[in-house]
TrEMBL record, chain A:
Its main location: membrane. It is found in: Cell membrane. It comes from the Bacteria. The chain crosses the membrane at residues 28-58, 78-99, 120-137, 149-165, 186-204, 237-255. The keyword Cell membrane applies. CDD domains: EcfT (cd16914). This is Cobalt ECF transporter T component CbiQ. GO terms for cellular component: ATP-binding cassette (ABC) transporter complex. GO terms for biological process: cobalt ion transport.
UniProtKB/TrEMBL annotation, chain B:
Pfam families: CbiM. GO terms for biological process: transition metal ion transport. InterPro entries: CbiM/NikMN. It comes from Pseudoroseicyclus tamaricis. Its main location: membrane. This is Cobalt transporter CbiM. It comes from the Bacteria. It is a multi-pass membrane protein.
Amino acid sequence: MSYVLEGDATARPATPPALTQVDPRYRVVAVVAFAITVVALHDFAALLIALFVSAAVLLHGRLPVANTIRQVVTVDMFMIFVILSLPFTTPGETAFTLFGLEASKEGIGDAFRIALKANAIVLMMLVLVGTIGPVRLGHALSRLKVPPMFVHLMLFTVRYIEVLNEEYQRLRTAMRTRGFRPGTNMHTIRTLGYLVGMLLIRAFDRSERVLQAMRCRGFTGAFHLIDESRPAGLREGLFAIGTAAVLAALIYVEVRHGAFVSR
Amino acid sequence: MHIADGALSGPVLIGGAVLAVAGTAVGLRKLDMETMPVTGVLSATFFVASLVHIPVGATSVHLIMNGLAGLVLGWAAFPALAVALLLQAVFFGFGGLTVLGVNTFNIAAPAVLMHYLCRQGVVNANPRVAALWGGISGAGAILATTVLVALSLALSGDQFLPAARLTFLIHIPVMVIEALVSAAAVFLVWRVRPELFDSLTQLKRGAA
């Protein structure tokens, strides 16, 4: 069975890799720190190291590699355009000319920088945070002092995405049995609009039953969040040291090597 | 229209994050125990709706429906869309982490704007007028989102200006599709369950 947010449960390795056993809070904080550091980098050596570390973590995490790569390269069309247009719109030394447009060395460099940063961060995030699972992520965020209302809204959303997706699949099946085939025409657009409207109505009706059921059970506006907190063990300690070492190395390379090469 | 990590400048990222946190906080203050389940379930619905693809020639576009989200949820659309973008970033790899604030603001602020502009229109006594306002909210939300995305790029550097301009052109078909789909959805809801557009305000009244 495949789920919207959790992928194929059967595809997961039997013995979970060590990194995905670290307390989720540490993983969230580490990824945020990694992302902020990587975004601020400018030197190519540092960025390549960052991507290399992300790739190593991906292999360690034993995520389905082909699947993950496909996720990573699914950039919106317009982001691809942003990257492709940069060489021609950034002023600087001409590297090559294409159809009378001059591509600058600086622009090509910037385009590669964006691609490296985006990929390094997305990979790290998918492996370290994506493997936490939506519900545990909610609980981890709550213990990181994210406001409870936000966490509750997230948990509700996560809970009902699966339910509503099933509802959506049922409606699609019903449409198929009646011979609906999507195309670029007004009929398709109107039909899919009705589909969205119908989904909203069914969701709305469901939410009323949900609220009544929750009232019955004495819901006061707060979920009981599972407190999995255990004292930070050796694993968390090593993870924190490892994260700090990677970030320190990136900053060191940026400052020493970067100052040397690009200035 | 997710912007990826690495393109935007520091001030734009920080500005976006501050605005997104502020908007989310305002939206959360409008929620209480009574409105939480309906908001969560509708937030999940808009998440699922974004998985719906509409064929456009050889390719396809997925629905965004932030205008409709604004009509139904009002300010609560802000945290609802923030949650959706967080989940998409973390589990699908759409967008990025440092741009989460910017992306949230670019999608959610237009939703709230459309709530104020078109909310009166969709409860009009004539279903065709209501559908028209639904269409306006669909197109308006994408228009505003596109302008904000282009602005985020333009503020990050002059070299992004052509890309920002083209972003706008590329999204004209999306605008048309969102307008038509939203109009159809509003038309159906108006016919079947008109109280849906009052869901949040009504529940509040019921609770008081």
